[in-house]
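Lab notebook: predicted structure, single chain.

Context: the supervisor wants predicted structures on file for every construct in the current expression panel, including those that have not yet been purified. This is the next one on the list. No modifications to the sequence; it matches the entry in the shared construct table.
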Amino acid sequence: MQQQIQQRTQSFTLLSRAEVLSKQWQQKQATSVALLTSMNNILAQHEASNDAAALIAQFKLDPAQLAYKQSLALEECITQLYKLMESWQELVAEWQHLEHDANKYWTKTLTVPSPQGPWPLSNEALIQVTAVRPQDTYDYISRLYTMYKSEYHYKKTLMQQLSQFLTRISDFDDFTERWTAQPHLHPNLPADISERIKLYKTVKKVVESVD
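Prediction complete. Output recorded below exactly as produced.
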């Protein structure tokens, strides 16, 4: 029984780390989308300025100065986007480390004999119902690492092509659509992990409260 309790605890420790990293990815994605929205607004203003030369002259605005300010604002957004990509790279490295730990944990459990027979009826037996097998723990984390790594490289490729999408607002809309789609991600996977963790914590809290 003690062996299974230790494995259960280790599994949920690893899955909790995965949940944290998944949420960090979501936060970075939200930040990047906000930057893309700002860039879209700047490009739209630039196009509008080109189409409103008479209006600019009427209000005695300096077209060159206006274009310069727009260019500076756009460059700042791009700089922030590149910094975000660097932090994304660090996040993928954390996923790689977690995948290594999960694989090491699962491999170690293969050398330990599995306990025979059903658990005796107890509070621990009730909590054990929520347990995630070491193999499944590794499978969850390995799949998450693969999908986030693939999405990071997809975004990296998009960034290498960014300048091609800045000439027209319609082109940039296409870039934004590709970016926000996140085609390599499977939202159900991190959601499933969160549900497993939530179930474990809920059952454990209820069982221990009546112990």
